[in-house]
Amino acid sequence: MRIACLQFNPQLGNIAHNLRRADTIISRAGARGIDLLILPEMAFSGYKFGSVNEINSHLEPTAAGPSTVWARSIARRLGCYIALGYPEHCAHPPSSPSGPMSRYNSAVLVSPGGDVLVNYRKHFLFSTDESWAEEGPDGFFSGDLPDGLGRLAMGICMDLNPRRFEAPFEKYEFAHHILDSKADIAVMPMAWLTSQPAESLVAQAQVPDADTLAYWIQRLQPILDKGGQGQSGETIFVACNRTGTERNACYAGTSAVVGVSKGNAKIYGHLGRGTEDLLVCDVPGPGRNQATE
Description:
- The protein is of the alpha/beta class.
- It has a single domain, classed as Nitrilase/N-carbamoyl-D-aminoacid amidohydrolase, CATH 3.60.110.10.
- The protein contains 8 helices and 15 strands.
- A hairpin with a 2-residue loop joins strand 11 and strand 12.
- The protein is globular, with a radius of gyration of 18 Å.
């Protein structure tokens, strides 16, 4: 199975530029034979909005805005599944107790034929999300991919952490979701911050943020304890992060594809903290495009 992560540096609020940038990276990389392509959280809007008023003009209707239109077009062109994050507004009937509109930090999953399969709403909100978004009410996602690609679990960034940083660290909510749903693959669009100085994104652009990568794996401890669900007891974990800076935020990059099994985490590939590129990894699995060039 061939999995790809598109890591780049979106400009806040500049959707047209960000769409063009993603297209350029895909064209430059070739992107042949991919089964599943992941993009970051809020990939084309940027992430660091501070209020409802600020983000309102960038909200997209449920699985129908520019992010989903792009995903459907590229999925058909590449013949692959695509998951990416976007800021969602969902209109309600006038009589709804939720009011006229809900806002979510969401991710959409699109089929190779361009059909929308999933619209997932971030379940655990980061403080930035809480300034404008509601918590997704339906929990983390899991479901079977067609074409024999296995069972997929999906979360978004903060979903990997303890809820609100208030739940016990050892609760491992998302990792237990992966185990309970018997997922072969877990994907997470991210806008994950780094504690490293912004200068490191340039000075060490090709070097992954080792602390970030180690933490992601640490948050999968229940799978390391019990083993995964895929071939040879392995679950494939895919973290697609963004890079760059946004206002006072500095992002960790380091997008990675990791095979997690009992007592072992195998890194199939990763990007540096400051690179804009397409990471492509071949992993064990029933993918339609088996390591062919």
